[in-house]
Amino acid sequence: MNEYKYIGKPVRRIDGQAKVTGRAVYSDDVILPRTLHAKVLHARQSHAKILLLDTEQAKAYPGVAAVYTAKDIARNDKYFRMGDTKDTWVLAEEYVRYIGDMVAIVVAESEEIAEAALRLIKVEYEPLPVVSSLQQAKEAKDLTRCDKPGNVAMPIVVERGDVEKDFAQAAVVAGGTYTFPSLHQVHLEPNSATAVYNMGKLAVYCASQMWFHIREDISAVTGIAEKDIEIKPMMIGGAFGARNDQPLPVITALLAVMLKATVKMTNTRLEEFLACRPALGMEIETWIAADAEGNFLSKKTKLLSGFGAYSSDGDAVTAIACFRGDNNYRFRSTYVNGTGLYLNHAPTGAYRGFGNPQMHFALEQAIDELAVKLNMDPTELRLKNFMHNHETSIHGFRYETNGIRECMAQAKELMGWDEKRKNKTPGKGIGVAALIHCSGSRAGKPEFAGSSALLRLESSGALTVLIGESEIGQGMNTVCTQIVAEELGVDPLSVNVVMGDTSLTPFSTGTNGSKLTSNLGIAILFACKDLKKQMSDCLRERWGIGPVEIKNGAAYGEYTGEKIMSFDEAAVKCSHAFNGRPFYGVGIFEPKTDLGDATGYGNLAPAYPFGVQMAEVTVHDNGTFTVDKIVSVHDIGKTINSQMAMGQVYGGVLQGMAGVTLESLAINKEGIYQANTLLEYKPPTFLEMPEIVGSFVETIDPYGPYGAKCIAEPPIIAVAPAVANALYDAVGIRFEEAPITPAIFRKKLLEKQRENQRQNQPEKLPENQGQQRTNPKEAGS
Amino acid sequence: MNATMYELELTLNGKKVKDMIPSDMLLIDYLRNVRLLTGSKKACGAGECGACTVLMNGRPIYSCITLALQAQGKEIETIENLSDGDTLHPIQEAYLDAGAVQCGYCTPGMIMSTKALLQKEPQPGTQCIKEAMAGNLCRCTGYQQIIEAVQLASERMEQRRRDS
Amino acid sequence: MRVTKPATLAEAIRFLSTNPEAKILAGGTDLLPRLNQKLEYHDLLCCLDDLPELQGISLTAGGGLYIGASLRLWELAETPALAGYLAIQQAAAKVASPQIRNQATLGGNLLQENRCMFFNNQVPWSDVNKCFKWGGNQCFQYKGSKECVALFQSDLAPAMMAHGAQAVLTGSGGERRMPVAELYLSAGRKAIAHDEVLTGLVLPPLPAGSRSAYRRWTIRGSFDFPLVSCAVRLKVEAGAVADCAVVFGSAGIMPKAIDTSLIMGMAAGDPQGLAQKLMPLINKAVAPFRDTRVNAGVRVDMAKDCMAKALAAVCSG
Ligand SMILES: Cc1cc2nc3c(=O)[nH]c(=O)nc-3n(C[C@H](O)[C@H](O)[C@H](O)COP(=O)(O)OP(=O)(O)OC[C@H]3O[C@@H](n4cnc5c(N)ncnc54)[C@H](O)[C@@H]3O)c2cc1C
Ligand code: FES
Ligand code: FES
Question: Do A309 and A98 meet the contact criterion of CB atoms below 8 Å apart?
Answer without folding.
Answer: yes
